Structure formats: structure tokens, C-alpha cells
């Protein structure tokens, strides 16, 4: 940029005589801005893509910190189809994960936001996407009402259902039926699957998406089939464990309108969801993810639903305290990306 052109720009900006900004200062500012742009878009393009992904990708609200997560295609093998139904193609799959929790569990939500945001950062190349939302019923505490409102403003990842807080009194039914209505209009995000999950479940989202990518997109029920040991457990009709199970979008819409689910909501929520589907002859395509979905073992004896960690895990359940979370995250090497710094000593 010549001295005459910088002087012209100086005048266009209304910086006349007596201004503290001289033409030479302006020239330095322009050159500095150009260097910064070169650094962001050419030298560090990946960092720019990651920030763009969090600010506007997926089905989240633009400009929020809603946890919108995507994964690469080859993370894991497909789930087992226990009914022999047809499966979907390799196209992208969209999943809404509703983590059922309580308004006052701020620490757990913060942990899960961190864990799933890191998974998103490690998988910037999108092949399928997952939206993670925290789900609870009406907030009755004045303290929680203020603090939850701040979370919603900041993160945009909370769904507050119109129900009294409960575990087995209809909360899951209300979640599915609310989602069916909220995302059924023109321009609303279109999900292939909606998953209900517990807040003590660690989901490895790239493995989850890769597994669902090979599943049917209609009349599908995905999770860990219970009872898994028919010799030693009472023979309940089959259902998916409440640690985390998914319904295809058509079944979510069916739950919202079916007489079977509307009139029979009170009972163990995972068993009752399976009961609705069994009574109506629905969910012909069932995907059993044993042994990739399981309970944390700890000091308990192994069983068909509880065992040691395995590398190709989709979900670990029963992480009731910080020590279990730390052990689980350590096994899966979640902190491997921690950069060295003189500011912390771990």
C-alpha cells in the first residue's frame, strides 16, 4: 500500500488533522489485520473450521454451545440385528440424544458437556451428527430456575418438559412425545433416531454413529437387549436397557400418538417402552449391542450385562461417582490431547 493510498483511506475514515491516529499508524493497523487473516485462514485453517463447527453446525442453535457432535465413518462395526430386518445404507445418520437428569445436577452436566465437546473437536470431519440435550421436568426450585435459565442462555442444550419430575412415572413418554411435536414442523431438524440416555452413561459418540449408520431407518429399536441371560433372569418380555436406547423417528412419532403408550406410562421406563412396542407388534428391526454396551464392573462379578472395559465400547453405564468417571475416561485415554504447559503439573 502506497503512502498516497493510505492517506486517502485516512481521509475517508474521517481522521483529519489533530487525530491521534496518523497515516503511518493506520498503515500498520491494516498490515497487521492482513497478517492475522493470513494466519487464521492459511496457516491454521483447522482451528477456524473447528470454531465454525461449534458456532453454527448440526441442528443446534447458531451461536450457542449446544453439544452438536459428528463422527467419521469407520469408527466401529454395525450392531447386531436380532430380528433379521433390513438395514439402512451408508448415508449420514442424525441422532438426538436426550440425557435424562435433574435440574440441580450442574456438575454432571458440566462433565458431560466437556466430554462430548472434546469428542466433537476430535472429529471435525462430519459423516453423521449427534445433538446432545439434557432433559428434565418442570423446575420447581427458585434457585434452580435462575441457574438453569443461565445455562439455557449460555449453552442452549436443555429441554424442560411439562411434567412433574420423576423417573418411572411418564418422563420418557413425555420426552418422546414432546420431541415428536417440537421437531415435526416445516424447517425443523429431521432426526433419524432419538435416544434416551441416563446421566451416568458414558457414550462414545463416534462408535454410536458408526453403528447406527448401518441400521434401518424405520421401525428400529436400538440398545442392549434385556434380559440378556435367559437362564438366570426372570423371563421379562425383551426390552432395551435404560442406560441408553434409541427409536427410529417413525416410532418416536408413534409413541406420541399411540393408545398403548398414552394410557400406560407408569412403570420401569425402559421395560415399559419395550412393552408398548411388543404389544403393538412394532420395532421389527431390533439391534442388540452386547457386549459393546454394558455396566461398569468395578468389584462385581462379570455377567452378560456387566464386564471389564473393551476397546470398541459404545456405552458404559453405572458411572455413579467421579472416581468411576475418572477410571473410565483414563481407560479410553480421553486426556491424551492435553498440551504441555508450565501452568499446570498433572
UniProtKB/TrEMBL annotation:
Pfam families: Galactosyl_T. It is an enzyme of class 2 (transferase). Its main location: Golgi. GO terms for cellular component: Golgi membrane. It is a single-pass type II membrane protein. The chain crosses the membrane at residues 25-43. GO terms for molecular function: hexosyltransferase activity. InterPro entries: Glyco_trans_31, Nucleotide-diphossugar_trans. Keywords: Glycosyltransferase, Golgi apparatus, Manganese, Membrane, Signal-anchor, Transferase, Transmembrane, Transmembrane helix. It is found in: Golgi apparatus membrane. Its cofactor is Mn(2+). Pathway: Protein modification; protein glycosylation. Belongs to the glycosyltransferase 31 family. PANTHER family: BETA-1,3-N-ACETYLGLUCOSAMINYLTRANSFERASE, HEXOSYLTRANSFERASE. This is Hexosyltransferase. It comes from Oryza brachyantha (malo sina). The gene is LOC102722583.
